[in-house]
Structures are given as structure tokens and as C-alpha cells.
Write a structure and sequence with these properties.
heterodimer; A: 304 residues; alpha/beta; Rossmann fold; Alpha-Beta Plaits; 2 domains; 6-stranded mixed β-sheet; 4-stranded antiparallel β-sheet; 36% helix; elongated; B: 235 residues; mainly alpha; 9 helices; globular
């Protein structure tokens, strides 16, 4: 059982703030670190892995400061996003070297066990330079697992991995979580995180935007006002009719035609729109949701 | 010291094209010595040892070796895999230093002895003096260049400027530079062994002290840089 705690952690580079006053605690089970690209996910993982000093605040593992403390690596396994450039080694040699560096009593057995877990025993005799992206990802995972760590940090582990290997990786992470390990991985894809993580931490623009299990995060994301564009033959009349609807919170006219509508209660809006249009004698031409992208979900969470 | 790091660094040093270039430098020095020995009388052309072997080849070998064991791994961030381990970072640096240092001694200092003996086998003391001076200078060069590799990704360029511009060109014009030139310290030590070597004039004590301080300081500094190694995401 191991817990990583961030307390009011900020990290800035000159004038650029990468992480802004984040307080969170990552405990046993699988936690997903969700956020758009450039949100500060890698920065957070670097802070938790002891490869970045916080500009303010503290990052600790079970109370011990992580920065400049190589002892934490007895407990922590790290799978960086960075590629392994040890292309001249075989997978076996690479994982074995990792086991030796951990000072394990039987590095050979540990290496074999880790390779078995990620199902890389067969190709381990080949040089890493010949591996596919998914295989490299699994060798990276094996190297991080070799000392049986209670904390596993993975930066974008599913990036560029083919669907079959992705499922395999997801199953592995779930297994580690079920074994009581603290597993944290980052991703910018909600569906990916939902499938694996019990706990989700959402980071946007370096800030901690939301935290909860995937049900809570889903609800937060679906309860928000949804944007639609309605195109009709008389936008102004439609707009004035829509604003009197309780399910509509804002209406705007588009310069080139069409009405921007912000809706809180989706079901009610879907039910009322045709009636409102008929009563106002307006013909509806088009109805388009404008912000289904994750980016807009994130910006809503931040603005909340 | 960590034997795994030593093994991996040796593989990184010899396993790539860099290993070939590294071996080529002393090969050229010795080949030149052989050619001159065959074509001329013994004792002529000793500048091969002095001006080429000691002043040029030795620092180049040290530069290539020390940047090869550390530079690429820091540049592409893959050193993370080696240092996300309960191994003191100073011991990682020390292990890498030892690998680069042994390479410099074998491929930078030892060829001075060989080339010297080839050129003039009647003067073994002079050849030995250059090799000894080369060993000391090589020790310090390797440490300095390792610190550079830990500090900046432009370590090779800066190292070349140091060797060619500072020690080479300016060192030849301004004699005061001998106080801050690793080559001059090595030559001072060589001069104390053989009268045939001209002493730059810093005194033996200063040369030994300066080389020691710079070596220890550089390795310590490189270890400190690695302790603060920062992984920056692509974002």
C-alpha cells in the first residue's frame, strides 16, 4: 500500500506555469490522469517520479520527499513516454539490466517473471531496435515491473499501441490495480481512462479541474450546458421563442445565419424544440451539436 | 561504482559507430609514426607524439569517449531508465567516468608511448614521459568533458572549442593560458620525467594540484547535475 501525495504543487518554467496549485492524493487502485495535450500531465508524472522539482508545494510518497530521493525507486516503477533508445540491447538484456540496477537477489528470475507478465518472453532474444511500438511499450512496462513495485506510473502508455495490444495493456493495469498496487496512467482519451481507471483526475491547463470515479466525471460532463446551432428560415423569431424555454440558458444569433443555443436539460430541449418552432411558425433546417469534443468538455470543467 | 552501468556504458561506447571513430584516432597517430620512422632517421618527426598525439588526438579521444557514455542518453532522455533506480546518481556518473577514462587511457595515452617508441626506440624515457603526461591530462580532460556532457547538449562543440581555440590557438599565442590549460599541466608532468620535453612553466606541484582539483570537481559536478536530472515532457 503506497500513496503519492501532492500538496499545493506548482511548477513553472520562467513565465510559463505548467502545473498550478494542484493538491491530490493517489492511492491503491488504478487512477487515470485525464487531460488534453499540453495540460501538464507529463509534468505531473515527472514530479511524482522524482524527475522534476516542484517550484512550490510538496510531492511525497508515504510521507517521504520524492525529489532527489533515489530510495523511492524501490517502491516506484516508471514507464516514461520517452522511447527506449537502447536499440543495441535485446529486450532480455535491457530488462535484466533493470533488474540488476535494482539490486535484486535473483535478477535473472525477476527479469523472466516480468517478461512473462507482459508476454514478451519469445521476442526478448531480439534486439529492441527491431520491435514494434507495442512491443517496445511492453518491454518498457517489464523494465518498470521487474522489482515488483507497489507504485506504477505510466505516461501515455496507450499512445501508438495497436488495439489488440491496447486491450492487453488495459487488462494488465486493471490486474495490477486489483492486486492493491497504486497505478497511475495519463491519457487524453476519456473512453480509454473510463475503461481502466477506478478514480479519474482531470487536469486542464495545469489545474486540477475535477476528481472522482468515472460515474462522477461522466455526470459532470453530461450535466454541463450543451451547445447547439439551429438553422431555420427565421432565426430571430426562433431565438426569441427559445429564450422563454426553461431548458435553454442562452441564445445568440450567428452573423451568417443560425442560432447558438445553450441547453441544460437535453431531453426537455429535444422534446420542446419542434413544438416551439411550430408554434412560432418557423421551419427548422438544421440542428447541430457544436462541442462534443473533449476539449470543450475540459474547458467547461475549468470554467466551472 | 555499479557494474551494470559499467557494462551498459561500455556497450554504448563500443557498440556504435563512435567506437570505430574512437579507434581510428590512435590508429592514425601510430600509422603516421610508422610511416615517418620508415622514411626518415630515428629521432626525426617526434612532433607526431607532441603536436598531434598529445595536443590533438588525446583530447579528441577524451571528448568522444566522455560524450558517448553520457551525451546521447541525456539528449534523448533515455537515461531515465538507468537512473529511476535505487542507485546513487553519483555512482552512476562515477561508473560512466571510469569507462570513458579507461578508453582515454587506452586509446589516447597508450598510443603516445607506442608512437614515441616507434619514432625513437633509443629514448624510452621520453616516450614514457609523454604517455604519463597524457594519462594525467587524459584523466582531467575526460572528467571535464563528462561534466560538459551532463551540463549541455552542445558539449562536443564546446569541448572542441576548448581544445582547438583555447588550448590550441590561444594557448600558443598567450603563454598565460598555461595556468588554465589541461594540456599544459600534462606537459609539465611529462617534462618532470624527461628533459627532452619542454616545460610550460607552471611548476610540477601546480600542474598536479590543478589536474586533481579539476578532475574531482568535474566528476562531482556531473554527479550533481544527474541528481537534479529533469525530465521535460514533449508538451
Amino acid at each position: 500500500m503506497a500513496t503519492i501525495s501532492l500538496d499545493a504543487v506548482s511548477r513553472w518554467y520562467g513565465n510559463v506555469v505548467a502545473v498550478n496549485g494542484i493538491t491530490m492524493s493517489v492511492g491503491p487502485g488504478v487512477t487515470g490522469l485525464l487531460g488534453p495535450n499540453g495540460a501538464g500531465k507529463s509534468t505531473l508524472i515527472a514530479l511524482m517520479a522524482g524527475f522534476l522539482s516542484p517550484s512550490a508545494g510538496t510531492v511525497t510518497l508515504d510521507g517521504a520527499t520524492i525529489w532527489r530521493n533515489t530510495e523511492i525507486y524501490r517502491t516506484v516503477g516508471l514507464v516514461p513516454e520517452r522511447e527506449i533508445s537502447f536499440g543495441y540491447l535485446t529486450g532480455q538484456q535491457f530488462v535484466l539490466a533493470n533488474a540488476e540496477l535494482h539490486g535484486l537477489p535473483d535478477p535473472g528470475a525477476a527479469c523472466q517473471r516480468a517478461l512473462e507478465v507482459v508476454e514478451m518472453v519469445e521476442p526478448a532474444a531480439r534486439r529492441i531496435g527491431t520491435y514494434s511500438k507495442g512491443m517496445r511499450q511492453r518491454v518498457k512496462l517489464a523494465s518498470a515491473l521487474v522489482h515488483d513495485p507497489s507504485v506504477l506510473l505510466l505516461d501515455e502508455p496507450f499512445n501508438g499501441v495497436d488495439p489488440r495490444q491496447r486491450l492487453h495493456l488495459m487488462a494488465l493495469l486493471q490486474r495490477f490495480g486489483a492486486e492493491g498496487r497504486t497505478v497511475l496512467f495519463s491519457s487524453h482519451i476519456l473512453e480509454e481512462v473510463e475503461q481502466v481507471a477506478r478514480q479519474i483526475e482531470v487536469v486542464v491547463s495545469g489545474r486540477h479541474a475535477a476528481s472522482g470515479d468515472f460515474g462522477e466525471i461522466r455526470r459532470l460532463m453530461t450535466d454541463r450546458p450543451v451547445q447547439y446551432v439551429v438553422v431555420s428560415d427565421d432565426d430571430r423569431t426562433l431565438a426569441s421563442a427559445l429564450i422563454s424555454e426553461p431548458s435553454v440558458v442562452a441564445v445568440g444569433l450567428r452573423p451568417r445565419g443560425g442560432v447558438d443555443v445553450s441547453v441544460t436539460d437535453l431531453g426537455e430541449f429535444a422534446h420542446r424544440l419542434p413544438r416551439v418552432a411550430r408554434d412560432a411558425r418557423v421551419r427548422l433546417v438544421e440542428l447541430t451539436p457544436t462541442d462534443e469534443s473533449l476539449e470543450s468538455v475540459f474547458s467547461y470543467l475549468v470554467g466551472r | 561504482m555499479n557494474s551494470t552501468i559499467v557494462r551498459l556504458s561500455t556497450q554504448a561506447l563500443l557498440g556504435r559507430r563512435r567506437g570505430l571513430v574512437l579507434a581510428l584516432i590512435p590508429a592514425v597517430v601510430i600509422a603516421l609514426a610508422v610511416v615517418i620512422r620508415v622514411l626518415t632517421e630515428p629521432g626525426t618527426g617526434y612532433e607526431i607524439v607532441d603536436a598531434i598525439g598529445f595536443t590533438l588526438a588525446l583530447p579528441l579521444v577524451a571528448l568522444l569517449a566522455s560524450s558517448a557514455v553520457l551525451g546521447p542518453e541525456i539528449d534523448d532522455g533515455s537515461i531515465v531508465y538507468l537512473i529511476a533506480k535505487p542507485v546513487p546518481r553519483r555512482s552512476v556518473v562515477l561508473s560512466k567516468y571510469v569507462v570513458a577514462w579507461l578508453a582515454t587511457l587506452t586509446l589516447g595515452a597508450l598510443p603516445l608511448l607506442v608512437a614515441g617508441l616507434v619514432l625513437d626506440s633509443s629514448e624510452p624515457t621520453q616516450a614514457l614521459a609523454w604517455a604519463l603526461g597524457g594519462a594525467v591530462a587524459g584523466t582531467t580532460y575526460t572528467a571535464l568533458f563528462l561534466a560538459l556532457a551532463a551540463l549541455t547538449r552542445h558539449a562536443v562543440v564546446i569541448g572542441l572549442l576548448f581544445v582547438l581555440l583555447w588550448e590550441g590557438l590561444l594557448g600558443g599565442l598567450l603563454s598565460g593560458i598555461r595556468w588554465l590549460a589541461i594540456g599544459a599541466w600534462g606537459q609539465e608532468i611529462a617534462a618532470s620525467v624527461s628533459d627532452a620535453v619542454k616545460a610550460p612553466g607552471t611548476g610540477l606541484l601546480y600542474a598536479v594540484l590543478a589536474a586533481t582539483v579539476l578532475t574531482v570537481g568535474s566528476v562531482w559536478f556531473a554527479g550533481d547535475r544527474l541528481r537534479s536530472f529533469t525530465l521535460r515532457g514533449d508538451e
